[in-house]
Structures are given as structure tokens and as C-alpha cells.
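hiii, so i know i said id send this last week but things got crazy w the move. better late than never?? heres the sequnce for the chain we talked about at the cafe, plus the structure i predicted for it. fair warning i was half asleep when i ran it
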Amino acid sequence: MNGLLILIPIALGLGLSGLSAFLWAMGDGQFEDPDGAAIRILIDDEGPGDVGA
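okay and structure toks below
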């Protein structure tokens, strides 16, 4: 029973810190373009003379 008095506030604190980190990331724009990296890897920025450089 005494263990619950310690573990419940720790669990609530970790949950609230995770939620606040997620909300901070949402506000900071971390999830604005989820498909951008998947498409960006397919774009060829090199010209025909840039191969091997």
C-alpha cells in the first residue's frame, strides 16, 4: 500500500510531462509536414553532370 503512495504520483508526473512535451512539439510545428521527408527522398537534385561528385 505504501508503494502505491509513491508510484501513483510518479506515474501521473511522467504522464503529464509526456503530454506537455507532445503539446510543446505540436505548438512548435514538429508535425506540420509528415509526408515531406517521404517525398523529399525521391526528388533528384543532381543534374546529369553531377554524378559521382
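btw The chain has a mean pLDDT of 85. thought thatd interest u
miss u guys!!
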